[in-house]
TrEMBL record:
Region (Disordered): 321-349
Record-annotated membrane-spanning stretches: none
Domain called HTH OST-type: residue spans: 176-251, 253-325
UniProt-recorded name of the protein: HTH OST-type domain-containing protein
Gene3D superfamilies in alphabetical order: 5'-nuclease, LOTUS domain-like
Organism: Marvinbryantia formatexigens DSM 14469
A GO molecular function held by the record: RNA nuclease activity
Length: 349
C-alpha cells in the first residue's frame, strides 16, 4: 500500500443489501483507496442471509453476528454504528463506506463527516434522500450492477497456458485475461470521461486493488506493459521514459458499427427506437460489442455522439431518433447562443 493512499472501512448492512452487489461494491471502492476493514452485520442464524455466506470467505469479509432480539426491529443498526465509532476513534482510517438502503444511518454518516472522514454511501435506488445527502458521495447499487453485468463476456473465456498451469496446481482462482482486459478498459474509460490520461503505474495500482493476488508472472510475463500489449482492445503509448495505456480503436470496425446503428434508427421512422431494443440489435450484429471499448460508460452517450442521431426521453423511455446532421449542428448553435451572456443595454455592437 502506498504511503499517501487513503484507507477505508467497509461496513455492510446485510439486512438491507443483496449479496449480488458485492463485486460491484468492491470494484467501486477500489477507486478511492485501500480497504482495511471489511465487515458485514446481520443475524447469520437466519436463512435470509444464506446467499451472503457464500461470498464472505471469497472476499475476506468478516461477518458480525447480531441476533434479532425483537421482531420487526433492525438489530444490526446499533452494532454497525458502535463498530463505526470504535474504528473512528482508533484513527486508523481516512474514510468509511456505508452500504445500506436504510435511512437509519443518516446520523452516523453526518457524525463521521464531522470528524473529517470521507463517507461513501452505497444503497439501492429506494435509499431515502436524507442518507444520500449525508454522505460525501453516494452511489446507487443498481447502476454499479448494470456496469458489472455489461462487462461479462457471453463467450467462454480463453485460458492462457500460465492460467492452465496454475489451475492444475490447484490455484483455480487466478483472474482470467478477460477480466484483466475489461478492468483496464473500465479504468481508461473513467479517466477519459474526466479528461485524464491513464498512466501505466495507475493501471498496475488499480489492478492490485481489484485483485490483491494479481501478478503478471501468472501469465508468463515479467513486465506489465508487455502483458498489456497482448490485448487487442489496448495499446501502450511510450513517450521517452513515460508510458500510458489507451484504447485501441479499429476505424473500419467503428465505421461499420455506426453505419449499422444509423440504418436501424433511420428505418424506425420519426418515432425512433428505444435504446433497449437498439442495444439488442447491436449485440446480435456485433457479438463482442461493448460501449466501453469506444470510450463511453453508457450506451446513451455513445449513441448521442453519432452525428445524425439524437436521444430524447428519460429512464427506460429514452429513444434514439434520426436527425439530419445539419439540423443537429443548428440545434447546437442555438444552445451556444443561449449560453452566451446577454449584452448590457446601450452597449455598442
Amino acid at each position: 500500500m502506498k504511503e499517501n493512499e487513503e484507507r477505508y472501512a467497509l461496513l455492510i448492512d446485510a439486512d438491507n443489501v443483496s449479496a449480488k452487489y458485492i463485486k460491484p461494491i468492491l470494484d467501486e471502492l477500489s477507486k478511492y483507496g485501500n480497504v482495511t476493514y471489511k465487515r458485514i452485520y446481520g443475524d447469520w442464524t437466519s436463512t435470509q442471509h444464506a446467499s451472503w455466506k457464500e461470498v464472505l470467505l471469497q472476499n475476506s469479509i468478516s461477518p458480525i453476528q447480531q441476533y434479532s432480539y425483537t421482531q420487526g426491529k433492525n438489530a444490526t443498526d446499533s452494532a454497525m454504528i458502535i463498530d463505526a465509532m470504535d474504528i473512528l476513534y482508533t484513527g486508523n482510517v481516512d474514510g468509511f463506506c456505508l452500504v445500506s438502503s436504510d435511512s437509519d444511518f443518516t446520523r452516523l454518516a453526518s457524525r463521521l463527516r464531522e470528524s473529517g472522514q470521507n463517507v461513501i454511501g452505497m444503497g439501492e435506488a429506494k435509499t431515502p434522500i436524507p442518507f444520500r445527502q449525508a454522505c460525501n458521495i453516494f452511489t446507487t447499487l443498481e447502476l454499479l450492477l448494470e456496469d458489472s453485468t455489461s462487462e461479462k463476456e457471453e463467450k467462454a473465456p480463453v485460458v492462457s497456458a500460465a492460467e492452465q498451469t496454475a489451475q492444475k496446481a490447484g490455484e483455480s482462482d487466478v483472474v482470467s485475461r478477460e477480466q484483466v482486459e475489461e478492468a483496464v478498459v473500465k479504468i481508461i474509460t473513467e479517466n477519459q470521461n474526466n479528461d485524464k490520461e491513464t498512466g501505466l503505474g495507475e493501471v498496475g495500482s488499480r489492478l492490485v486493488k481489484l485483485y490483491p493476488d494479481f501478478d503478471v508472472r501468472n501469465y508468463g510475463y515479467s513486465m506489465l506493459y508487455k502483458f498489456l500489449e497482448t490485448f487487442p482492445k489496448l495499446k501502450v503509448i511510450r513517450e521517452g521514459s513515460k508510458m500510458s495505456v489507451a484504447l485501441y480503436e479499429d476505424p473500419g470496425r467503428r465505421e461499420s458499427l455506426e453505419k449499422y446503428i444509423v440504418e436501424q434508427v433511420q428505418n424506425s421512422g420519426s418515432v425512433g427506437i428505444a435504446l433497449g431494443p437498439l442495444g439488442n440489435k447491436i449485440h446480435l450484429q456485433f457479438k463482442d460489442f461493448k460501449v466501453r471499448d469506444y470510450g463511453y460508460s453508457r450506451l446513451k452517450e455513445y449513441i448521442s455522439s453519432i452525428p445524425s442521431i439524437r436521444t430524447k426521453g428519460e429512464g427506460k423511455q429514452i429513444r434514439a431518433v434520426f436527425e439530419d446532421a445539419k439540423e443537429k449542428d443548428k440545434e447546437k448553435e442555438k444552445e451556444k447562443e443561449k449560453e452566451k451572456p446577454k449584452k448590457r443595454a446601450g452597449s455598442r455592437k
